[in-house]
Design brief:
The structure is a homodimer. Chain A is an alpha+beta fold and about 425 residues long. In chain A, about 30% of the residues lie in helices and about 30% in strands. In chain A, the strands form four sheets. In chain A, strands 7-11-12-19-18-17-14-13 form an eight-stranded mixed β-sheet, with helices on both faces. A five-stranded mixed β-barrel of chain A has the order 2-3-4-6-5. Chain A has a three-stranded antiparallel β-sheet with strand order 8-10-9, with no helix packed on it. At the A-B interface, strand 2, helix 4, helix 5, strand 7 and strand 8 of A face strand 2, helix 4, helix 5, strand 7 and strand 8 of B. Chains A, B: It is found in: Cytoplasm.
């Protein structure tokens, strides 16, 4: 870099926004936009932390500076040095009067994302490695990053141990139909669908555990709610009942939602999303009530079947706050769910539903902790006993009642950011038709 | 649960250790050990947060309580209520005089892990779902959990955005020999070896990014340093040089190491590991110096070859602090490495080496940011151009100089905890011979 350093402070845009007028700053970033008005030349600079206006002024900035600013192409990487000053008209209320500028890496012209190509979702996702630079795409990802940090802080502050479960597994947690299979040194193995079984082992050592890692579902469903690879935050707690479990979900969601809403206000503003604070306790409605309501609206399904997506969407639209659907029939749930003492057809489980039509964001429940009940359930579901040997084994050695849940990061972000399609919540989404870039 | 709640406070062991003597507490946990001395019956209770001694005393505790305490089996889950009091002889200096106790889940006898079986590594890893309850295994995992949280805090405090890169990829970052392949709706895809390429795309949007996610290597190497699935923390920063990159690694490692050493003192004590504080800057030695030293000790390898494991171990043993090996020849590095201006055979890259023989824990370097240089390198390495199309594309649109690194979580833990085999650092390790449990 040829430019002399002088007295300028190397800083990020976000940092310099809180510095005093008159400070000499040195910024590095990309040309998000540029324009000329009379004797003034403007560059909107972004550096990942924020945006700031660079100004070149004839008679004040040198001719070299002005000509570089006029000629630099959109999305070029530049280094600029100049004086910070307040200007109410500028984005974020500050601008930098440029003294030196250098193009570090010139971008080819034209920048492929324009008013016409931006209308094609397939073009944008084929060029996701470029389109993620957009103001909206990057805002979604900043919200996502903040959400994950908030979840980490929540769990650590509540005495949870972070664990990782293997991605390569020999056992299917959620059933065999939606498994990705691979060869592993001559063995047939699968990509994990959930960390739950491993968490259940871990709670007997750590009491409370959580995970944040990829989960995989080879579902052929091409819906705006499904990715084949997604991030799940899962938690499992020894001695917790389903009631404790729902309370924990309430606390977690309230904490992360309200913190992200507060700390990422700017990004939500960019997305035009106004968030109402989430308040606990969340309402709880039973499967039977959901079914009655759905049927009144002409959506019919047999008792014992899973709630169809359209019914879930209908109910979800009736709420302004997240809520739980409880008391799912056993026939609609996986084999490991514990049932009510007073009605063995009903599980101690719940789905946590986001309002406004966004639907399910988390699933949780109390797991069977008794050996014989679990053994019977594995047999009656015709599951391969050998694969579940270690999972059963846990029930022989002091497995207390316990409960847990998994929350889909992308689904929460889709709701928070009010997005039509879940792929916009993932930096490089994987769907049944997409593994590129 | 039949036991009446009374005035007891439901608490964790760790919380109750800082409560006042005389407090009535309610604890839930597992019987780690038990013994009788005269009129006293002891249970060592662990609940995942810590250990505490439960005491039953004839004449003070009821006969029922005494008999339950005598008869309960090791690793049973229990609920106990009683009065907290100080006792210098007890582990952690406190004990609970038991008033009520209930066995929540009785463990079968005998507990399979005993003085004889504990000597068999294959038995312990076949029963990892049980053996993780051990004092040492769980201490390693607590250290691991703290280390990952420390890394998250570090990166957030330094303005990094957390991203996740896909696990399912179409392109091999580190070369094709060690890829796990799978079928993806009729396409051939791979499990990721590194998030680096995706991070390189992301820095043009966020400036600084980091990841923490599984990476996969189908290496047939059966060494105490290799897992087929492991957790990598990777970071990439726009406008960083290799010098900045090494400084960032120094800061990160110093921060997480010293914080974990401080906050997990108890766990390091359990492991018998005394940690000396890590101090920056780390020493830097060149590949050529390493080669000279190795050859003086009879370990010969051609200039340009990668440093053999035994040479790395030899050098690592000569240090008490982590250090960098720099100036690797291009022939020993991947195609994307940038080379020195003054010597195109030498890369701007480094390995971060842990002392005491533990060897490499991180690899980093400056990446080629120029389109033509990268294109040439892809061609001269006979790599499929089509797979690298988007990666090359980044160099057309304002890619500045940038650098990054990947640090292997399990390797850092192996060093911190002074472990012979890396499998002990993973809750459910995956090696070429192990996918169970």
């Amino acid at each position: 870099m040829h430019v002399q350093s002088g007295a300028a402070v190397r800083t990020t845009v976000d940092e310099c926004l809180s510095m005093q007028d008159g400070s000499m700053v040195e910024l590095r970033g990309w040309v998000a936009n540029k324009s000329d008005i009379g004797s003034l030349t403007f560059i909107l600079l972004r550096d990942g932390s924020n945006y700031i206006q660079l100004v070149g002024k004839k008679g004040v900035s040198s001719d070299d500076v002005i000509s570089i600013m006029k000629e630099v192409s959109i999305e070029s990487a530049v280094l600029a040095r100049g004086t910070l000053r307040s200007d109410a008209r500028a984005l974020n209320g500050k601008e930098v009067l440029v003294k030196d500028i250098e193009v570090i890496a010139r971008a080819e012209e034209p920048w492929p994302i324009n008013k016409s190509t931006v209308r094609s979702a397939s073009f944008l996702y084929d060029n996701r490695h470029l389109s993620i630079r957009g103001m909206k795409s990057s805002s979604i990802m900043k919200i996502r990053s903040e959400l994950i940090k908030a979840a980490f802080d929540f769990f650590y502050d509540h005495g949870f141990t972070f664990i990782t479960a293997p991605s390569i597994v020999g056992t299917a947690v959620e059933g065999g139909a939606t498994l990705f299979e691979l060869e592993y040194f001559g063995k047939k193995v699968y990509l994990t669908q959930s960390a739950q079984f491993y968490e259940e082992a871990a709670i007997c050592s750590f009491g409370k555990v959580f995970t944040m890692q990829p989960a995989f579902r080879a579902e052929k469903s091409k819906t705006p709610k499904h990715l084949t690879e997604f991030i799940m935050i899962e938690a499992e707690v020894a001695f917790n009942t389903q009631e404790d479990n729902m309370r924990l979900q309430e606390e977690l969601l309230t904490y992360i939602y309200n913190r992200v809403a507060e700390r990422r206000k700017r990004e939500f503003d960019i997305l035009g999303r106004r968030l109402k604070p989430v308040e606990k306790p969340f309402q709880r409605i039973k499967y039977d009530e959901v079914r009655d309501t759905a049927m009144k609206h002409g959506i019919n399904f047999e008792w014992g079947e899973d709630i169809p997506t359209e019914a879930e969407r209908l109910i979800s639209r009736m709420f302004e706050q997240p809520f739980f659907i409880t008391d799912y029939p056993l026939s609609a749930r996986s084999f490991y769910h514990m049932c009510r003492d007073d009605d063995p057809r009903i599980t101690l489980s719940s789905d946590l539903i986001a309002p406004e039509g966004f639907g399910e964001i988390a699933t949780g429940g109390q797991r069977i902790h008794d050996y014989n009940t679990l053994l019977e359930r594995i047999k009656s579901n015709n599951l391969p006993l050998e694969s579940f040997r270690w999972y059963l084994d846990l029930r022989r050695y002091g497995m207390p009642p316990h409960a847990g849940f998994g929350i889909g990061v992308e689904r929460v972000i889709r709701w928070l950011c009010n997005l039509k399609h879940i792929r916009a919540t993932s930096l490089f989404p994987r769907t049944i038709t997409r593994v590129y870039p």
